[in-house]
Amino acid sequence: CKHGVVGPIVCGNYCLSTLNHGRPAYRKEQHPGKPDVMLYFWDDRDGAAASGWWLSPKVGSEVVWGFHPSRSSQTPPMTGWKVPYDGGVDPHFLISVRRDMTASTTFGRLQGHNQAQE
To answer: Does residue 106 have a pLDDT over 90?
Structure first.
């Protein structure tokens, strides 16, 4: 994500946290002085326009940093994200998944085009 404000907020490592509306929700690794970030799915209970995958400080927050309109994906889509949520699709915003074999926990890395992948 090349957005100067939103990119530093949302880019980083995420860990599986809970379920929301029947799909996994992820929390960004916390860093002192940085905002909490959740990546989660919202179903169509508030209308089709609100349904999809969201990046915000907490599940259901009205503060939003990113959005993907996919309602069919069971996990966060890898590409096609609007970051910031009210902008166009950011081709540099990517989600990759890795598996930590020792803990059997799924981690995600949200990254910008110029950042190194772990």
So the answer is: no
